[in-house]
Amino acid sequence: MNNSNEWKQAEHALSRMEVLKQGSNEPVAITGESEDLVCIGIGTDAAVFVYEPLPAYAYKLYTEAALPKKQAEIHVYSQLEGSPFFPVFYGSGERYVVISREEGMTLYDCLLYGIPVPRQVIDDVDAARAFVRSRGLNPRDIHLKNVLLQDGRGKVIDVSEYVQSGNDKRWEHLEWAYDNVYPLLEGKRIPLWLIEAVKTAYNHLDPLNINLQEFSERIRKLFIKN
Asked: Cα–Cα distances in Å, from 193 out to 54, 147, 171, 223?
């Protein structure tokens, strides 16, 4: 962890913003205004901002209902300190945590723009998951929007569910798709509607009882139509 407290300079700007819960699986809403803050990401429990005078930091600002997740995330980052597979944790405020701003494109956007994803990214996520387990945590909720392609390597950017139990199988299913489906798609731009259609169909399935081969055949028909 960095002992510098320069990140606290964003405190006043962040105090002018509020993040509101919209629904269990809906993106949050943001109210307030600050010329120095730029929103770079929106999730279901928080929004991520960059404070322009200090662009090396990312501020994850939580909804009121999600503040317990903030505390969990602080705990997780304390256990993952020193790993190259995750952002650096710098500190926290009343409603936010501060981590390193990570450059790169999410795997979701790689599909959208036809950017090839090298096998090294998959291997890095596997190594990250093993490291998480070695620290007594549970690597859950690793999906296309939570992994960055960064200089040919993989970096995981959301650790908020690692204190929860159970295996949601998301990464195992993505790795299967990488080996069995992605070779047919690599370098091709996948339309947004098609990615979202696959995501919606997947979310309606029981993750512990998915027949991946059958599911991939259903998805293949969508690509043929497209």
From this structure: 36, 21, 22, 11
Phi, psi of 41 (to 5 degrees): -170, 145
> Position of tokens 């993750």?
207
Separation between Cα atoms, residue 212 and residue 226, nearest integer Å: 21
Phi and psi at residue 220, to the nearest 5° = -60, -35
Reported in sequence order, the residue ranges of 138-182 that DSSP labels E, i.e. its strands, are: 147-150, 153-156
Which helix or strand (DSSP H or E) is residue 201 part of? helix 192-203
Which amino acid type is present at position 56?
A
The rounded distance, in Å, linking the Cα atoms of 159 and 70 is 10
The residue with tokens 């993106």 is 27
Quote the distance between the C-alpha of residue 179 and its chain's center.
21
The residue whose two tokens read 């405190």 is 11
Per-residue pLDDT of the chain (226 residues; tens, 9 = 90+): 445 799 999 999 999 999 999 877 788 999 999 999 999 999 889 999 999 999 999 999 999 999 999 999 999 999 999 999 999 999 999 999 999 999 999 999 999 999 999 999 999 999 999 999 999 999 999 999 999 999 999 999 999 899 999 999 999 999 999 999 899 889 999 999 999 988 888 888 877 777 788 877 777 666 655 5
DSSP state of 168: -
Using CB atoms within 10 Å of the CB of residue 59, give its burial: 0 to 12 exposed, 13 to 18 middle, 19+ buried. buried
